[in-house]
Amino acid sequence: MQVLKFTSQVEEYNHYLELNLEEQKLIESAMGAAKNAYAPYSKFSVGSALLLNDGTIVTGSNQENVAYPSGLCAERTAMFWAGANHPDKHIVTLAIFAESEDFVVEKPVYPCGSCRQVMSEYERIGKHPMRILMSSATGKVHAVNGLINILPVAFDADNLKR
Ligand SMILES: [Zn+2]
User: Fold this and answer.
1) Domain limits at 90?
2) Does some domain include residue 13?
3) Active-site hit among 64, 75, 99, 123
C-alpha cells in the first residue's frame, strides 16, 4: 500500500484591490452580478464573472427555486451561458463573490462540488488552466491557478475509456 498525497496552492490577498486591475474589474463584475441573484430562500446572493480569452466578461448569479434542486449556482449559470453563446472561447478567469442578508461573509467563498466538476470540464475542453478568484464581502480573496488546486482528482473523460 502507498499513500498518495495531493497538494494545493492557494494565494491569499487581504483585499481584492491587491489584484491587478483586470482581476479587480472581474471581482467588481461578480459583485454587480450578485445584485441580480434570486435568493429568497437562502438569502445568500452569489455573483460570478468569467473572463473569456477574447476579453468578453460573462456574469451569472444564483437562481433559486421553491423546489430547491431546480435552482442553479451563480458559477454554472455563467459557465453554461458562456458555453451556449461563446462555444469557441475558453474561460481564462472565473471570479466569485457572495453576500448574505443575515451575516457578513468574511471567508472567501469556494465553489460547490457540482460547479467544480463543471469548471473541470470547461478547463479540459479549453486546454487552459482556469484561474479562480474566490472573494468575500470583506474584500479578502483566495486565488488558484487551475482546478487541480480545488479539485485534485476529478472525474474526467478518461474515466469513460477502457
Ligand atoms: Zn455551485
Assistant:
1) 19-69+86-152
2) no
3) 75
